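Posting for a labmate who doesn't have an account.
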Amino acid sequence: RIPVMAANSFPVCHFREFCVVCIGLIVSGMISLSASCACASGSATEHIPAAARVVLMKAGKLIELKDYEGAVSVIRSFQQKQPEDGETDRLGCGHAEVHYTLGVCYLLENNTVMAAAALDRALAKDPHHVSALINRAKAAYELSDYRKAAECFQATYELEKNKDPEHLYHAAVALLLAKDSTGSIVIFDRLLAEYPAQFQLPWRENLVHALLDAGLEKKALPHIRRLAAEYTGEKQKQWQEVLLNEYMHLDMYSEALALATKLSEQDPLEALWWRALVHIHLFRNKYKPALTSLVILSYLEPLKDQEQRLLADLYLQLGVPQKATPVYAE
């Protein structure tokens, strides 16, 4: 018989680590350059004192000119007029929109820590400030505070009038980055239920990542099959490999054999599929088709030392010692 080690240690399709699809974020909800820059959500930002409106307009013009440092200076100077605790803030120095605009300026300057602090002050004044929430999510994401980012993304989705599933998706990915695969799956399941037609392939990739992270490999299989079917080119090949690997990992060797056979017929010059077939046939103690697959593999690329030894073992096992001898000699 073929030595056990030769069969079990044969290199098979290596699982490729998933790269979580990056969240491409821009600073959203930029302040209006008019005096009516408040959010139309019925929140506290609808009532901005005249002095604060003037400052916001000045800052807005500077932002338009990309003079973010100048805008910060205008706002900070205005905030120094903030009254003592207990006194009425008639000027609006501590108004949510003032803190929010300062936070946006800091984000545009890539001063993320200061941006997060200013946006936190804006949200303390007005927890329903959607633009502050989405920018706070961006700041948290850039600071690698993924749980906070997820919280803000989800809060944005719940509060916005026109629901944007992208915000819910960003929350799911942020939880995945925070190593909370269970929480991420809950949101992905919600997206699948509420937006089945808008559930994009990159979203499904990250759902698979979350499911595998949580040890839910069988639940991930339908999604992996769909990715392998719907992608094209190199991306499709990657997911075909992942699917094949999962079949073998779950001891679903009949499914693995059917898939590897199909793939080798579709792309007979791809060594990966023949290498997988060798492994599958060995597991099923089918030495002749294993030898055939290994010989084909040798025509496609040079065999590794371990594969060369396996080739000799198979020749010997199948009664062709004259073929095995030169391989052993090498």
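Reply:
Got it, the structure tokens are right above this. The mean pLDDT is 85.
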